Amino acid sequence: MCSQAEQQDLIAVAAELAMAARLATLRHFRSAGLSSDNKGSGNFDPVTIADRESEDAMRAILDKRRPNDGILGEERKAKASQSGLTWVLDPIDGTKAFLAGLPTWGVLIALSDENGPLYGVIDQPYIQERFEGGFGRAIVKGPMGEVPLKTRAARPLDEATIMTTFPEVGSELDGQAFHRLAKSCRLTRYGGDCYAYAMVAAGQIDLVVEAGLQAYDVQAPIAVITAAGGIVTDWKGQPAHRGGRILAAANRNIHAAALDLLNSTA
User: Fold this and answer.
1) Domain coordinates of the chain in residue numbers?
2) Distances from the Cα of 230 to the Cαs of 11, 41, 198, in angstroms?
3) CATH T-level assignment (fold) for domain 157-262
4) Which of 34, 62, 66, 92 lies 20 to 30 Å (CA to CA) from residue 207?
5) How many whole angstroms separate alpha carbon 170 and alpha carbon 186?
6) Among 64-73, 168-177, 227-236, which is the least confidently predicted range?
C-alpha cells in the first residue's frame, strides 16, 4: 500500500503526464492535413503522429520521475515493473473522433498494481476537463472549476441512459446482447469513446457497455468510476482491468439489472 506521501507524489506525476499529453495532442487536433496509419488488418484502426508523440512525452516523464515503474501503453513496447506499480497509458482514446475533429476523445492514464488500477485520469485536452479518481479523490477539474464526482443513484432501466462507442459492439452475439439491454433503457447514445465513462462518473448517464477493449482502454475509467461510487466489471460480473467485454454502471442495482439482460438467452 502506498503511503500518503507517495500517493501525493503519484497524483502529481499523473497530472504532469496529462499536461504533457495535452500539449502533444493539441498540436495536431483539427490541424489541416493530419494523416493516419491503419493498424488493423480489416477494420480501420487508425494511429496518428499525435498518438505517438503523446505516449512518447508521457514515457519521457516516467523515465525521469518513476524509472522503476512499469509502463503499458498502446503505441510502444511494454516496460516491466521493478516497483510493483505500472502506468497504463492510452495516449489518445478515440483516435477516430480525433481525426473527425470531435472532442469526445481523451487521454487515459492509470496507475495499477497486480490487482488492478489504484488511480486514474480521463483527460480531455480540448475541453480542458480532467476527471480523477483514486487515493480518496473523485473530482473533475474544468471550465466550471473543481467539482466532486458522484455517480447517479439507482433507478429502473426504463429511466436509464446507456452509451457505447460503436452500434455493432464486438461480435454479432455481443451486439445482440447490447441491443437487448438498450431496448430496456430510455435513451441510447453512441460515439462517446472514453468520455462516456467520464459521464458515468459525473452522474450524467447510467451505463456504458462495450466489447473488445484492451487494458489501456479501461483501467483509467475503472479507477475514476469506482472512486465516484460506480462499478465496472466484465459481462459476467468479474474484474475487468484486463479488458474484454465491459459493463460500467452508476450503482450496483442498475449493474445487476444490466447483467441479467446481457446474459439473458430470451
Assistant:
1) 4-148, 157-262
2) 21, 36, 11
3) D-Maltodextrin-Binding Protein; domain 2 (3.40.190)
4) 92
5) 22
6) 168-177
Of 95, 119, 128, nearest to 222 (Cα)? 119
Helix (H, G, I), strand (E, B) or coil at 197: helix
Could you please report the per-residue DSSP string of 85-137?
-EEEEEEEE-HHHHHHT-TT-EEEEEEEETTEEEEEEEEETTTTEEEEEETTE
Of residues 35 and 120, more confidently modeled: 120
In SS3 terms, 22-80 reads as: HHHHHCCCCCCCCCCEECCCCCCCEECHHHHHHHHHHHHHHHHHCCCCEEEECCCCCEC
- Residue-wise pLDDT tens digits, 15-34: 999 999 999 999 999 998 89
For 183, how many CA atoms within 13 A lie in the half-sphere containing its CB? 8
**Is 157-262 in the same CATH topology as 4-148?**
no
> The C-alpha cell of 252 is what?
450496483
42 falls in which pLDDT band (50, 70, 90)? low
When the pLDDT of each residue in the chain is averaged and rounded to a whole number, the result is: 96
Task: Tell which residue, 114, 113, 145, 115, has the closest CA to residue 129.
Answer: 145
Do β-strands 86-93 and 70-73 pair in parallel, antiparallel, or remain unpaired? parallel
CA triplet 188, 105, 125: central angle to 5 degrees? 130
Residue 142 one-letter amino acid: G
In a 10 Å sphere around its CB, with 0-12 CB exposed, 13-18 middle and 19+ buried, how is residue 3 labelled?
A: exposed
Q: Out of 3.40.50.150, 3.40.50.720, 3.30.540.10, 3.30.70.20, which CATH number does the structure's domain 4-148 have?
A: 3.30.540.10
